[in-house]
Automatic annotation (TrEMBL):
Signal peptide: none annotated. This is Multidrug transporter MatE. One of its GO terms (molecular function) is amino acid transmembrane transporter activity. Keywords: Cell membrane, Membrane, Transmembrane, Transmembrane helix. One of its GO terms (biological process) is cysteine export across plasma membrane. One of its GO terms (cellular component) is plasma membrane. InterPro entries: LeuE-type. Its main location: membrane. The chain crosses the membrane at residues 40-63, 75-92, 112-132, 139-161, 181-198. It is a multi-pass membrane protein. Pfam families: LysE (PF01810). It is found in: Cell membrane.
Amino acid sequence: MLSVSEALLLALGIAVVLITPGPTNTLLAAAGLRQGLRRSLPLVGAELAGYIVSISLWGHFLAQAAHAWPWLPSVLRIASGLYIAYLAVNMWKAAVALSASTQAATGLRTLFVATLLNPKGLLFAGTIFPAAAFANGEAWLLAMSIFVCLLVPAALTWIAFGAALGNGRLAWVNPSKVQRGASIVLGVFSLSLAWAAFH
């Protein structure tokens, strides 16, 4: 089991990482912008599933074979960076027809894969989650319960932000420019992954 201090540190670390901009949060905001709050709600489940799989796999992998293949994290960062760059290009193209079409709306599979490849999963597994979470079933369940309780409001915040842009509550903001700005954020994030992988 986790101690109270471990659980509090875990909650703080999770909250800080989940609320920071990144590929998944950018996609959630873009979905809220294009699809509205209600139609974007299922994406929270896709994000949760992606993180549970990613954190669990990374955590167990790092616990068993952290020193066996030192090159693997770099390869995964490069693969994640390429996928995120692909999402950035698609988002930039979709911004052109933002007011006329919702065909480029973010889907469950896109968000799941983006979350699965999100380097935050490795950060959660290797740094924020305690090692006990991957050695004991009860500790894993407690850590994941804390994670779920923090992920849902963070995801809803990003979707609501996008939806507020889309429905005119933030009328002074140009939605197309916001979406293109989001694509730039994704692009910079993919470049930072490539930089980290080669340095």
